[in-house]
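User: Could you walk me through two proteins back to back? I'd like the raw sequence and the structure tokens for each, with a short line separating them so I can tell where one ends and the next begins.

Assistant: Of course. Protein one, sequence then structure:
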Amino acid sequence: MDKDTGKLLQFDRQHIWHPYTSIDNPLEVFLVESADGVRIRLEDGRELIDGMASWWSVIHGYNNPELTRTLREQAGRLAHVMFGGLTHRPAIDLARLLIEIVPQGLRRVFFCDSGSVAVEVAMKMAIQYSYAQGDAGKNRFLTIRSGYHGDTFHAMSVCDPTTGMHQIYQGVLPQYFFADTPACRFSDAWREEDIHSFRQLLTEHHHSICAVILEPIVQGAGGMRFYHPEYLRRVRTLCDEFAVLLIADEIATGFGRSGKLFGCDHAGISPDILCLGKALTGGYMTLAAVLATEKVGHVISQGEPGVFMHGPTFMANALACSVAVRSIQLLLESNWQENIARIECGLRQGLEPCRTLPGVIDVRVLGAIGVVELAVAVNMARIQKLFIAHGVWIRPFGRLVYVMPPYVITDEDLSTLTRALCRVVEMEFPK
């Protein structure tokens, strides 16, 4: 390590607070010099095959020439303007494109800053929807265990109280309803008893529940679980039966990651409110969108106070909207379904050797998501160095070692990535 790099890392350690880490005993961080395609290049010259797509977002790889060109061209015209009283082409183009591709019936688009904020916006919409109908007491939420919806305050209240990383806030957060985690896996035969807990809670408490919020099919950071599409269909039916809104948090699952364009597409259902983020801009900029039905929009607009009470400063940032349009176009112009199926096949083959390793309790794959679940939590500091020594970037959490690479990854790089994952797990849990 040269002197300049050492000084930078020393400053970082002394002054910068990284996510999910301590300032007294911080995890080691690695200085990135550049990134291109699926490779992250460290300041010391080492290159790592990226297995994380920067937390699900960089679907087209780093330094994509089309997205970079779009960003530069937009910056020369308009970087940002307030969205109160003004509008611009990138926002209009993005809204039009989203309405065309999302599940049917979602016709109103509200732009915001990030995934967590999108969840906050969706929950506020649901509460205000009930308020506008004169039912202010219908303001609670039902969700399912093993879910994760973000780290902002109200989003934490619908994350799993045990696996959602927010246990210390339980005495402060609003108390909502949690149905049992769906037990039927994605490829299992459907079992009717799987929906019983959800049905019972909704039957007993629908008078106070304004909305159900869940991650369709793929539960992310709360457990990396893939559940049966029939569960989602039953949830939609029950929400309709009891006049409760359905919020689909597709922040992680949107834009092809699970093998369908959206998680809801596996079940053929449409939510009343949809949250999008992460891959929306191909990982270039922070941006999120909340889409709602005409009914939701009109009810909120016709009741008191007659407007939706939210307005981020950087709402519909022109740079982000412009890049998002081009990112979605790149995805739709590609043979993305065949490509995700290719990655899924590579992940199944590549991760299968982990199944027989000591300490491994499950291996599961859906679309471009591969998960190795361990019996005990990893030692993050140690395992991170092992992955880097094997030339890959994988960031586990708790008992879950998982990958969701950029869609542009080659078969050769995917094989290298999965071999490294299996090898490191074997080193951590030797026979």
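----
Protein two, same layout:
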Amino acid sequence: MRLPDEPDLPFQINIVPMIDVIFAILTFFIVSSLFLGRSTGLPVDLPKAASAQNQTANPLTVTLDQQGRLSLNKQPIQPNELQPRLRALVGTQSVLVVLNADQRVSHGQVVAVMDQLRQIPGVRMAIAAKPPQQ
């Protein structure tokens, strides 16, 4: 029962816990989306290199798998299609192209692909490698 001299309190909704939950969910989605973009290549067994560095740009990927099959951004292509397709993707801008070559692929195949990449103006080339386990 209310007393007659008691003031009416306005109705209030405390939104602080709701904001905390929304920020927690937002943080979860931001952090999880960072891990989604890291699998950009086909499964190859990369060689290890002590000087391997992470690349921050959004590169195009050329992959040579264990059987010597060539792929551009996970799409299988023939070796003679590599230069025309890359020229169309690169245009006049400078683009980083990462070569993912399985360690069991012959050196000659890797050099042939590198030679094709170097002939395209505006292509900066990187070779994918895993850092050695310590």
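Strands lie at 60-64, 70-72, 75-77, 95-101, 123-127.

Let me know if you want the two compared in more detail.
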